[in-house]
Amino acid sequence: MISKNARYICSMTKLLNCASEMNRLGKQATPFIFVIDFLAKNILVKQVNQISNDIILYNINGVSNYIPEDISFNKSVFFNAIPLDPLRYRKAFEKVMKHLQRGDSYLLNLTMPVALDTNLSLLEIFKNSKAQYKLWMKDRFTVFSPEPFIRIREGRIYTYPMKGTIDASLPEAEKQLLSNQKELAEHYTIVDLLRNDLSLVADHVRVDRFRYVEELLTTKGHLLQSSSTISGKLPSGFSSHIGDIITRLLPAGSVTGAPKKKTVEIILEVEKYDRGFYTGVFGFFDGVNLDSGVMIRFIEQTADGLVFKAGGGITVNSKPEDEYNELMQKVYLPF
Length: 335
Description:
The protein is built from nine helices and 18 strands. The strands form two sheets. Strands 1, 2, 9, 10, 11, 12, 13, 15 and 16 form a nine-stranded antiparallel β-sheet that branches. Strands 3, 4, 5, 6, 7, 8, 14, 17 and 18 form a nine-stranded antiparallel β-sheet that branches.
């Protein structure tokens, strides 16, 4: 079912080769898209004029290769999450907590696959979703992410870590979110990590705006999410090194943790499943500027049906019941 698409996706699997290709296209000011999985094992780099829209559709902040349209369903739609086994989650959580208590990690993004019961297809979900960063790969997955990876505008690079979610219908929800000490510690950690990440590729890195609240509309109602803005100045001629910039920042810090290298090792030990393209990154370079998203809010086609992959950040102050509930809360459609 996926052999043709797999060949298309895996046209390049060596990170250095892909970085070199992006550098070449950047130097020529040639527009391209890129899609990189969590472990940077499967990578797609394609010039925009070479993309087949019967295999890949994207909409990156309004830049797309299709004409968006409102789809009317000629059927009664249902979309239900099959609750994740709480015992499976708790076992993974407890392993994470041991590493946190030992100081191996200070923040770890723990994720799990959640089975779905729905009569919607990946394409129907993609076309109806409202999100800044949308991607569909035939017979593989769709993603409707609210989270940027990096943006480049007029020689500055920006990133926008999102950490902290709450049901907007709760009393004084925004106040609850901003006063939550666990969420605050988690946000400080990820801001510090991503500030250090940007320092690898840019100068004069600064936090432009710290911990502001945004609202997300979902099939489960409204959610509030806290974010920050970090930026730095890129060297002149950065377009010729655009691939090096992207790959040096992988994997995205907001969906791994700190310190990044050790935390990824722990993730691979405790999660016991393949994230694949989930929590990878994808984006569009227009020849001058770049915009990209982190692949969260992700639905994948499997032999057993559709699976929604979701998770959240764990710190030493986390409680398993709260984190489990937050994970399940993130299984939604942005319709």
